[in-house]
Write a structure and sequence with these properties.
The structure is a homodimer.
Chain A lengths: L5 H11 L4 E2 L2 E2 L6 H16 L3 E4 L5 E4 L6 E6 L13 H17 L4 E6 L11 H6 L5 H6 L9 H7 L15 E9 L4 H4 L4 E7 L1 E10 L3 E2 L11 H19 L5 E10 L5 E2 L2 E10 L2 H21 L3 E10 L2 E2 L2 H14 L4 E6 L4 H5 L5 E6 L15 H23 L1
Parallel strand pairs in A: 5-6, 5-7, 7-17, 8-16
Antiparallel strand pairs in A: 1-2, 3-4, 4-6, 8-15, 8-17, 9-13, 9-14, 10-12, 11-13
Helix pairs in contact in A: 1-3, 1-12, 3-12, 8-9, 10-12
Chain lengths: ~400, ~400
């Protein structure tokens, strides 16, 4: 069995949290200097852990084991959302690093490759690193991607950080017995139920829409109420109908969110002539996703028939649910049972993760550790040191048993 | 009676619409080069109309008559909203110019001063010009004002256009018998009732609020619906309650508008932790304004008691209704009756106008001409040439009778 060093694990996490430190969290957006410094630091630490490490053309940092036998690929992402938590992503990378370091020190006959996949957080292009590594990314997607905040083209960013012309590394699926990723839950399920480990059964499908409303821009003082075609009021009507109807048809773990609303022109004394919102829903069941979409389309048809504004539904993405490998789930569950009996649960992941990309090429599974209060994508995100260490032990133990089984 | 030249009036309006021409409208924001060019052109044209014209320290262009006898002050604003209509504001200035030109040519014994008051449209500071001229503006307000779009400080703008250090001209109330302003209605009342002239009885009170909601920012996939404190959903609830309740307690001409909504951080996969909206209502009755405010406060108290989000109501402005001078209204109505019998109506102005500033220092009144379809603050804003000319005749005739009466 692989024994990790819990104190070193925490110390390493605190060390890497200095790159882009912000309050109790980090601000380490993809291709910022703090992100690139963290990647350089990771290469050094991977080398110290006995791995042969390098950075590729999209900033994936990959450390390869030279040990013989079946190889397990582990990892996650190392950049953060803006002004976000200190564990989101990097926890899975550092679990991998600590695992490799322990194997190296203890001279164990296990081969683990560790990856830090770039831009899972979509500053430029979501899953840039894992999609590139899994040969699921066309060059033209890189050509057109831009930073969501600064509008910097991705190509310019790659040139700026010195990666232009460097090849993108590609997965050799025959090298690996599977992919294992650890991550904070980002929800409150484990925390509120006093559970210590989530064994991810699937990563839910995420269907995203941009909904636009066209009305008539006009003066907010001079235009009588009866003469108005207020796109903002119309958008609010749809939002209210969604909030009324969706709970009635939702599955147990369905979620839906309006993340952004914009009124055009967005001035205090102008009746909005246009309005737009970003809407999404998630579920592990394709049937449920389709039920939601039918409902949404029905509401919009009803509102369009009623007038006076015109609604349009634009599909942004329809990612189907990704099932995690049952055998890897069993290894994780057995390891959790060893260290925290009765404190593990099988659960879907409502959040997207690199594991869903790897699931197309390898057997893949994920381990969740609790998020205090379920907070994430905010600098107050946290997990107790004890839970972090416990998660690291479960992760390392599962990795060991997977590799042991594969070696037979 | 003053006879204006209708063809010249239209030609002059078309000429000034070349400054910042945009589609069939104009883009002539305050202190843009096109705005300053238009002001320079105005000075020239005022001089040709026999006025002594100059620009002051906040870009007010004022043309003074040297004729003897009582003086009537007329005018409006010459800048436009962004990408807006060709008549909003400048119509009232050009009516004044055409009036002065006609008086000058016909050697009539009338004294009319014409003003183009700067920044009524609030690119930097609403009513900058009229408030400055009416001695209702403190220097420190100029010090802190910034452009709403570019954030350029007003002081920098004044330096940029060469007005730094130039004195601000101040009204001499003893010089004037009153203030008269013409403007497009900006609503659809005249147009939809086949009316040709609106005699403004009062400029409505405008109460403006910023409403903020505090929730809990979180991950839109991992956070269960029951655990959410979604500030966007909470804001939508208030908006829906306003739209349900306000029509039940509104006056005949009450209007209310949500002009802007912002969700924080406004990303597709993050549950908004904060939300904000700009809300306003207008009415000519103070009692009605107070009724609306009581209702709004009540709704927010109810929502705050219900939780889980926290609402806060911030007062932006509470401008009380401004009554227009009854005697000037009578002159306008008599003139309208002469040129368009049965086609005039007394009505409040839902929009704000420089006249409400002048009403604090002088007897003031306003004439509205029809807006086709009620459209304004948009480049498709328009009024038929016939209606423009008719309005000009009514305006000039009323000016003449006001001055004639005052001279007695």
């Amino acid at each position: 069995m692989v024994q990790i060093n819990g104190d070193r694990l925490i110390a390493t996490l605190r060390e890497v949290a200095q790159f882009g430190a912000y309050k109790t969290g980090v601000h380490r957006p993809t291709f910022s200097s703090q992100d690139m410094d963290a990647r350089a630091w990771l290469i050094q630490r991977m080398e110290q852990a006995g791995l042969s490490a390098s950075i590729d053309g999209v900033a994936n940092v990959i450390g390869r084991s030279s040990n013989n036998g079946p190889v397990l690929l582990v990892g996650s992402h190392s950049e953060s959302q803006n002004y976000a938590g200190w564990l989101d992503g990097i926890l899975g990378v550092i679990y991998g690093l600590e695992l490799a370091q322990s194997i190296h020190e203890q001279g164990l006959p296990f081969a683990v490759d560790v990856g830090a996949w770039s831009d899972e957080e979509c500053h430029y292009l979501q899953f840039l690193g894992s999609r590139s590594f899994c040969d699921d990314l066309a060059d033209h997607e890189i050509d057109v991607a831009r930073n969501k905040d600064t509008r910097e083209p991705l190509r310019d960013a790659l040139r700026r950080v010195g990666l232009e012309g460097r090849p993108r590394e590609l997965i050799d699926p025959s090298r690996y017995v599977g992919y294992l990723e650890a991550h904070i839950e980002q929800g409150d399920y484990l925390d509120s139920h006093d559970l210590k480990a989530g064994i991810v059964t699937s990563i839910v499908g995420l269907w995203q829409y941009r909904i636009t409303v066209k009305g008539q821009q006009n003066h907010a003082g001079a235009t009588r109420m009866v003469a108005r075609k207020d796109a903002g009021v119309a958008l609010m009507r749809l939002f209210a109908m969604i909030e009324e109807r969706f709970p009635q048809i939702a599955g147990e773990r369905s979620v839906w969110t309006v993340g952004k609303i914009e009124l055009d022109p967005g001035a205090p004394s102008i009746i909005p002539g246009g309005a737009e919102m970003l809407f999404q829903f998630r579920d592990e069941s394709l049937v449920q996703l389709e039920r939601f979409e039918r409902e949404l389309v029905g509401l919009i048809e009803k509102l369009n028939a009623a007038g006076p504004c015109e609604y349009e539904l634009h599909i942004v993405d329809k990612a189907v649910p990704k099932v995690m490998d049952p055998s890897l789930q069993n290894h994780l569950e057995a390891a959790a049972e060893r260290f925290a009996p009765g404190k593990a649960v099988r659960m879907p992941s409502g959040a997207m993760h690199d594991a869903q990309i790897f699931a197309k090429r390898l057997s893949a599974s994920m381990l969740f550790v609790p998020s205090i209060g379920g907070i994430s994508h905010h600098w107050t995100e946290n997990t107790s040191d004890d839970d972090i260490i416990l998660g690291g032990r479960i992760f390392a133990s599962a990795a060991g048993s997977i590799l042991k089984e594969a070696a037979v």
